[in-house]
Amino acid sequence: MPETETFRIPKHRRHVSTARQRIRKALVNWGITDEPADSVCLLANELVTNAVTHCRISYAQVEVTLTLQNTELVLEVHDPDRDRLPRPRDSGPDEEGGRGLALVEELADTWGHRQEPYAKCVWARFTLTETLERAHVPAGL
Predict the structure, then answer these.
(1) I need a surface site. Which of 5, 11, 27, 90 has the fewest CB within 10 A?
(2) Does residue 139 lie in a domain region?
(3) CATH number at residue 92
(4) In sequence order, what DSSP letters do the residues of 67-129 get, joined into one string?
(5) What is the pTM of this model?
(6) Per-residue model confidence as pLDDT tens digits over 19-30
């Protein structure tokens, strides 16, 4: 059975750090540390920042889901601006932004997006190569 962490944050830049912290905590609880955790957190930061920056729906919330099943980890970021799909772009060396999707392309095994009835989802998939040490105790024990 997969392990899942899902939460929502308000569509505001100041809440991006909250998303990063929640993702880092889930990864640690699942025994994912070091470089894989750093890559997932970096891409979560990029995808959540894109969602809060580019979503044109007022007072929206961004939903983040992290799912671990065996050695596959999937990060999903949903926002309600379903028709505004991500487009990678070439950024000049002096531009401050515009490299987020290039990072996603480089660090994730695969990534993509899909339109849902009331939202869009941008996702990144990672294959973990090491056996995970389960650092947490299941609820109810």
Answers:
(1) 90
(2) no
(3) 3.30.565.10
(4) EEETTEEEEEEEES-TT------PPPTT-SS--HHHHHHHHSSEEEEEE-SS-EEEEEEEE--
(5) 0.86
(6) 999 999 999 999
Residues 40 and 73: beta-carbon distance below 8 Å = yes
Q: Which domain holds residue 79?
A: 3-127
- Residue 85 near residue 120, CB atoms below 8 Å: yes
**Cα gap 40→20, rounded to integer Å:** 9
With beta carbons less than 8 A apart as the criterion, state whether 43 and 104 touch: yes
Residue 62: other Cβ atoms inside 10 A:
25
- 137 in a structural domain: no
Residues in the chain: 141
